[in-house]
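FAQ: What does a ligand-bound record look like?

Like this one, built around 1-O-phosphono-alpha-D-ribofuranose:
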Amino acid sequence: MADKPTARLPFKDGRPPHLPCGPGDVAADVLLPGDPDRVALLRDMLSDVQDFGRKREFALITGRYKGQPLTICSGGIGGPSTEIALVELAYLGARRVIRIGGMSALVPQIATGSYLVPDAAIGMTGVGALYTGQGFAAEADADLAQGLRDAAQDLGLTAHRGTVASTDSYYLGQDRPLPDGTEAAFLDGFAQAGAVGVEMESQVVLSVARALGLQAACLLGVHGNRATNDWLVDYETTQRNLLHIAGRALFRQQ
Ligand SMILES: O=P(O)(O)O[C@H]1O[C@H](CO)[C@@H](O)[C@H]1O
Ligand SMILES: O=c1cc[nH]c(=O)[nH]1
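The answer part, i.e. the structure of the complex:
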């Protein structure tokens, strides 16, 4: 890679234009939450932490989880920022990526406080369509996904299996009312296509990771349930369990 940034690839001395870090700063294994505050929340669960700070929505730390090197990097909300994070992480040496985040279930059987490890992500994200083609499912790495389900079970936590739907929209695209009362009806279509949950990034993570040759899977805490209208007000425990499940899955495999 050139030392001098070019318009085509604006890295400087190997440092990417968006993530707050450079060569040698990223571990092969990466957890990708959406919210930068979740990087801070999980920080005390790692040892030997190097904090590279934050640029825009991208906060990044690298440390050790039970002795193994691990990076946690936030990717923001939605496809565009998530694609940026994944591509820059891949340039910096990431090999396995797990999206850790939240979703709402579309079926009553998947209760708030439980987890979903999708086999695949469908939906209507622009980045997903760009990388995978409109209408195609993006598949998780089967071994990594099964490792996450096994790890959850070992920890006594319930991890469901199924398809998740991702969308670029939190309000209209997820059938939430706008201030003038306008409501859409996209969730039935996702459920009819086989999805059991909805959120905003899994289709992006799985399709971009596949194109980059990264092993990737998603581990989603169930923050809401659209069938029962239940909403988890405090999801700190769920978020911290995401790190325990993911860490166990990543490092048991080796
Ligand atoms: O919990 P995170 O990873 O932020 O994910 C979910 O929450 C955000 C919306 O509030 C979207 O990014 C959605 O996918
Ligand atoms: O309902 C929800 C919950 C989390 N994330 C979403 O995108 N939607």
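Follow-up question: can I read anything off the structure? Yes, for example: Residues 33-35, 77, 101-102, 170, 199-201 surround 1-O-phosphono-alpha-D-ribofuranose (ligand 1) (CB under 6 Å).
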